[in-house]
Amino acid sequence: MANVFDWKLIFTNIPELMKYLPITLEVTFISYIMSLIVGLLVALIKIHKPKVLYQLTTFYVSFTRGTPVLVQLYLTYFGIPLVLQYINYKRGTNYNASFIPSIIFALVALSLNSAAYNSEFIRAAIESVDRGQIEAAGSIGMTPWQTLRRIIIPEALVVALPSLGNALINMAKSTSLVYTCAVVDITAGGKLIAGRNYRYFEMYLSLSIIYWVITLVISIVFGILEKKSKVGEKEIVKINDRNKRFA
Amino acid sequence: MIEIRDLHKSFKKLKVLNGVDLTVEDGQVVGIIGASGSGKSTLLRCIDYLEKPNSGHIRFDDVDFDVSKATKNDVNYMKSHTTMVFQQFNLFKQKTALENIMEGLVIVQKKSRHEAKEIAEKYLDLVGLSDRADHYPSQLSGGQQQRVAIARALALDPKVILFDEPTSALDPEMIQEVLKVIQKVAKSGKTMVIVSHEMNFIYEICDKVVFLEDGKVLQEGTPAEVLVHTDNERIKQFVSKVNFIETYVNQYNI
Fold first, then answer.
1. With contacts defined as CB-CB under 8 Å, which chain A residues touch B90?
2. Fewest Cβ atoms nearer than 10 Å: which of A212, A214, B81, B87?
3. Pick from A146, A235, A236: which is nearest to B107 by CB?
4. What's the domain range around A167?
């Protein structure tokens, strides 16, 4: 019975998996940044409701939230080459989908998927910023763009931080599906390695440990950020500080 | 100098301003009084272009335009030469008192941080809050926040400062400290338009008082003409209800 379960393998797997870690982290962070940018744009469209764009984003958010991310990965993986073929056919160009690095498909699918969810909490965070401060910014002559950058985003960020942390954790875990786009991340790499000795269970335990550590690090970092961001809401003025008040 | 003719503003079906005329001379302190809902705040917000008026004519030093045909330049001129002090202070809550004042100087007027800091410190000193420079709004009392807000408006050196009920959100003790600062500014010769329910204060510091009723000017004149010697029944009734007591008017003398 000694060979049924190999404890040691769980830990000896990890150094081997580490060579795939850069891909996992790369996909996680690039998709995350893109999902925040797209999410912010979608949130602004939801708030200002421009015609056509508003309907388009409503459809996009509804579709993205209504379909599994695995299916979306396949849709981009097979869809983008099809679109290129169509463009080639219509315009007589000669783009070749096989020259697109497969990681691009994963980045597009994951960031668009996450952006749909992010747009919701980004919108809520922006709308939580006190209108008075936005008016004050306008009154001192700031343009809408300056107001967004200098006043609204810094304040909305504080409100959104917990959700931003969650989004990053979800993103890190979703990257385990990128094998569908022929990207070899730690999960795909682990499967390859486990194929040599059929120790799949040990391998998935090793993978669990790595993902767990990644998400733990993210939650700790966001915990610290949250504490730091609470600047400006720390203290309440001391009521007995009367002499100074009238100074 | 601002000259406003026949200004109209409505929110959907609700008509708030019904043809307001208002003239503000350079260096003048104009008080706008009237019941709640008479359009006082809306008038101020239209001058600062926080609300877009529907029709009327505005002349303000270099610009002279019909509101319905206002160009971007006209609107920007109005915005950049007027600054509002709000009832709820509206300080940027993630910035310290000093940073609140520096923001417009650096971002809008493109001054260097060093220069902006010097100006901000000067105005913070003017409102007596030098020792609170590094405090966040949440660490300041209401009166202190409003004084910072006044310093923020002054530092930008606008042609006109608009006060929208600057003391209505304060408790009685703090009202005094804020009114003293406003009076100090008035005496320095700054052009100001003040909406307030502090009748004694209006009487004391204003060169001209305008009484608004249902989005129209019912009467305008010196404080004494409007508040004391008016023949208008409506204004008499209003004044009798807002505890304006002439003998108290000297309480704000510094």
1. 130, 132-133, 135-136
2. A212
3. A146
4. 14-235
